[in-house]
Amino acid sequence: MRWLRARLGQIEGERGSALVEFVFIALVVFVPLVYIVAGFSAVQRGVFASTAAAREAGRALGTAPDLATGEVRAQRAVELAVEDQAVQATDVRLEYAPRGADCDAAGTYLPTLTPGEEFSVCVTVTVRIPMLPEFIESNTATGQFVVERDRYVDG
Known about the structure:
By secondary structure, the chain is α+β, with helices and mostly antiparallel strands.
C-alpha cells in the first residue's frame, strides 16, 4: 500500500498542504475580486443617485410657483434622492442649463419658470471608491433631466 501512495504522489510530509494553498489562493484572488465589486457598486450607486436626483429636482422645480420656492424644493429633492442611494450629500452639485445645452454648459444659467420654458437640471455626484485616500482622483457621475414648464400656469 505504501508503494501505491508514493506512486500517486501522496507522501507523508504533504499532509495539510491543500488547506494552505487554498488560503493563499483565496487571499490572492478573492480579496481583490471583492474589492473590485465594491468599487463598481460604488460607482453605479453614484450614477443612480445623480439620475434620480436630477429627475426629482426637475419635477420639484417645474411645478413650483416661483423660483425661490422651486430652488428650495429642488435642493431638498436632491438631498432625498442622493440619501436614498447612500451617497454623501456633501459631494453633490445642482445646476441648470439652458434649452438644448448639455450639462457641460451648466452653472451660469438660472431658470425663470415662465410658462413654456424649457431647461435642463444637472446633478453631479462625486463618487469615492472605498478604502482609497481622498487625494486620489475621484469619479463624477452627472444626471440630466429636461424640464418643460407647463404653458398654462395659473398666475
